[in-house]
Structures are given as C-alpha cells and as structure tokens.
Amino acid sequence: MSSVRSAEATRELIDHRLDLRRLAGSEFFDDEAERIARLCHRMAERFARGGRLIAAGFSPAARSDVRHVAVEFVHPVIVGKRALPALGLTGESGGVSHELALATEPEDIVLAFGEAGDRPELAAGIAAARSRGCLTISFSELGAEWVLEPPSQDPFVRQELVETLYHVLWELVHVFFEHRGLLEGRTERRSHDAGASSFLYPFLAEREDDLDAVLADVRESARMKAAEVQALRVATLKGATAGLAEAAAAMRSSFEAGGRLLALGNGGSATDATDVVADFAWPPAQFGWPARRAIDLTADTAIITAIANDIGTEAIFARQIIAYGRAGDVLLALSTSGNSLSVLDALAEARRRELTTVALVGYDGGRVAAEQLADHIVITPSQHIPRIQEAQATAYHLLRELVELPPG
Predict the structure, then answer these.
(1) Nearest to 400 by CA among 286, 278, 268
(2) Is 90 exceeded by the pLDDT of residue 135?
(3) Mutual orientation of helices 7-48 and 385-404 as an angle, nearest 10°?
(4) Distance from the first to the final alpha carbon of the chain
(5) Residue pLDDT, tens place only, 217-274
(6) Residues 90, 360, 113, CA angle at the centre, nearest 5°?
(7) Contacts of residue 92, Cβ cutoff 8 Å, sequence gap at least 6
(8) Which H or E run contains 379?
(9) d(CA 293, CA 270)
(10) Closest Cα partner for 392 from 267, 246, 269, 223?
(11) C-alpha dihedral over 210, 213, 218, 223, to 10 degrees?
(12) What is the CATH number of domain 13-229?
C-alpha cells in the first residue's frame, strides 16, 4: 500500500479544517472588530507618546509569535509604513516576569502570548506591567486589560487567528498616524493621505476630526483582512492537496528512518520556521502525537551573524545544512517571495546532500517554483506578505497533522 494518503482523504481533511477556520475566523473578527479598532487607536496613542510594543511569551510556540510580532513592527514590509519600536522577551535571561519587570515603562504596550499552563509566569509579568501603567493585551485570560481570545479549542486554529490579529493590529495602527488630530496629546490637523499604501485601506476618507468614522473604517478593514486570509487559505490548500500528502509521506518516512527536519526562513518567515520546529518537537499534548526530531536553522544568532559577517548573508543557512544535514533528512524552507538568496542556496545545498526539500512560497512561487528548486512546493498566490504568512501557517499546521495520520 502506498504511504501517501489518498487525494480524496486528504481533500476531505483539508475541507474540514478550512471550515473550522472559516467559522472561527468569522466569529472572532465579527465579534471583536469594534474592540480591535479601538485597540489600534489606543496603541497609536501610546506609540505617539514614545511607548514601545513589548511582546512576551516563553513556551516553544509562543516564542515564535513573540519574535514575529516584534520583527513586523520594527521592520515593516509595507512600503511607506514607519518602523515602530518593539521588543521580544522570551525568558532567556531569568524568566518572562523578571524581564517584563526590568524592561517595561509607563507608556509601553505589553502583548502576552500564552495559554492556561503559562498563567503564573505571564500573569505575574502582566500584573507588574499594569501597575507600571502599561497597556496590556493577551489572547487568553492572564489578567491583561484587553483579552482577545479566539473561539476555538484547536491550538493551531487559535495560533492562526492570533497571528492574523497581531498582523491586523500592526497594519491598522498606522491609520491613526495618518489622522494625528485623533491621537491624544496631538494637535496637528491635516487631511488623511495613505500614499502608496492607500490600496490597503479602501474605506478610509479624508477625515481628521471624526474619530467614530475612522474607527468604523478600521473596523470594516479588520473584517475584510480576516476574509482575505480565509480566501487565501482556500486558494493555497485547494491547489496543494496532492503536494501536501506527498510531502507528509516523505517526512513520515524520514522520521521513521531516524531522519530529522531542518526548517528555515528570513524575517517573519524565520519566526514561522521556529513555529514549525515547535510543532514537530513539542506537539500539542491534546493530539497525542510523538515528538519529532527538528532543528531550527534560524535560532542561533551567533552562527548566523558569524556566517553573514565573514562569508555573506546568502550562506547563513547553506553552511548550517553542511554542518547538520544528512542524506534522508528533510528541509522545510519558508519564503514569501521564493527569491531569497539564502533560501535558494540552502535548497541547492540540501539537494546536493540528498535531503528531501519542501518549500512554502508566496507570490507566484518565484525562482523556487519557476526552477523547481524543491521536491515539494506549496504556493500561496498573493503579494501581501502578512496574508501569505497567515495562509502558510495553515499549510504547515496541516502538514504537521498529515505526518501523523495513517495513509488512507
């Protein structure tokens, strides 16, 4: 019998999982759109007064979100959007509550990632931040001022909804910088001009003194972005049914033969690689899956910066594949463009060393797809980086699930 799960069985699974995400996403963003809009306004006021975003979390999965939201704010990928100060705390220097106590200042925004099992450590940090005057946000009940909890018990669905939410917060907080007269403590009055990024905010008109009207536009934009990613999930996964089943079978065979997964990406995709490794090495307990051997090639900053400094950034992953990769291992590469030189060089090195290669890529797949540089390629057909990353999260979560399901 083939080790590849049948196309029909895979299609049924994907349809069911997409329905779960559609229902949870619609409920979440319909119910919370008003609060999301008001939270964007509150965050913009804090940033305008010199505050910073401080993301915190310490579980393997939470660390990926902490790093992801921090890099999005500090290094914006939307042309014309300002960089905003953000810091990620993951407990490496004495625990998250200790780090929050040392780092937070009164105008800061604390964004806490964690579930019920993380409560004592995170709750102590949130309590300290609130007492200092910080605006606090969490995605489960941890004592934060703003709690935005996804309506699902599935940890993968919850993580995907949270990722979309913090992308939406990042995208839409900028709207209020374009209406500075609506920020507390600001008196500048000028008409709204979204410039080169105006296509992202189709509902916004030239308003400077009508907060309710701008909040309504932001509210509608949040709902629209949630609908966009759901449509993109469908477009991604419907076109990848056979490819995901084949990739899962190859990964399962590798693990059963003693192989390992290596994962990589740049920027936000680096944090997604961290999430992939967390999902394989520390799977959610409720699923009962075995832990799988996995290495995050984005994790060691000393190795990455040494290679980048002495050889060049294009070699940061290829050199690690030379060090760690063995015939029979699997390399999973994430790229929103499909053109990053470090990713291309890594895929080439992996093939030379007889690793199975899997690539999740956006846009039209870039060079990875055009030149068939990976054995298994999943394309997310979009040019909007936040939505690409959100749909890719669904793809690798389903890939993780398919690895553990018997062929059928």
Answers:
(1) 278
(2) yes
(3) 140
(4) 9
(5) 999 999 999 999 999 999 999 889 999 999 999 999 999 999 999 999 999 999 999 9
(6) 20
(7) none
(8) strand 376-379
(9) 18
(10) 269
(11) 170
(12) 3.40.50.10490
Cα–Cα distance measured from residue 325 to residue 315, given in angstroms and rounded to the nearest whole number? 14
Instruction: Look at residues 72, 48, 300 and name the one whose alpha carbon lies nearest to residue 177.
Output: 48
Cβ atoms 109, 226 nearer than 8 A: no
CA 317 to chain centroid, in Å, comes to 20
What CA–CA distance (Å, rounded) separates 71 from 69?
6
Residues in Cβ contact with 127 at an 8 Å cutoff, skipping those fewer than 6 apart = 143
Q: Which residue in this structure is represented by tokens 């507390």?
A: 184
pLDDT at position 187 is: 42
Helices 241-256 & 385-404 angle (0-180, nearest 10): 50
The arrangement of secondary structure in 239-404, i.e. its CATH architecture, is 3-Layer(aba) Sandwich (3.40)
> b/e for 355-391, b at 16 or more Cβ within 10 A?
bbbbbbbbbebbbbbeeebbbbbbbbebebbbbbbbb
Give the Cα separation of 384 and 235 in Å (integer): 14
Q: Say how far apart CA 291 and CA 279 lie, in whole Å.
A: 9
DSSP readout, 145-156?
A: SEE---S-S-HH
Residue 235 near residue 393, CB atoms below 8 Å: no
- 352 Cβ neighbours under 8 A, 6+ residues apart: none
The residue type at 406: P
Domain coordinates of the chain in residue numbers? 13-229, 239-404
DSSP 3-state of 31: helix
State how far the Cα of 12 lies from the Cα of 310, in Å rounded to an integer. Answer: 49
Gap between the Cα atoms of 146 and 137, Å rounded: 5
Instruction: Return the half-sphere exposure (C-beta side, CA atoms, 13 A cut-off) of residue 279.
Output: 27
pLDDT over 70 (residue 289): yes
What pLDDT score was predicted for residue 177?
Answer: 86
- Percent above pLDDT 90 for the chain: 80
Residue linked to tokens 């060089």: 345
**Orientation of helix 60-74 relative to helix 268-281, angle to 10°:** 180
CA distances from 372 to 319, 330, 349, 376 (A): 22, 16, 14, 9
54: DSSP letter = E
